[in-house]
Specification:
about 80 residues; mainly alpha; 4 helices; about 0% strand; globular
Amino acid sequence: MKEQVSTRCKILITKKIADSLSENEQTELNEYLTSNNKAKQYFAELKRIWELTNTLVPTSIFKTDVSEEWVKFIKSLKSNKS
């Protein structure tokens, strides 16, 4: 069976990149990343994209609280799942 990255794992990865994980969520994410190579790849790719975006687009252009926007994004994922 082909490894997949669960929606929950994607949410945790997003929160990690936004630096908004709780300790329990960090533990949960660590478990995903150590047990699922696809999740580990997904995390590395998303983190790389995030870092590239930060270097290519000056943050002074945006007056946005990135962490707050990620939380909104995560909430929208949860509401779309329902």
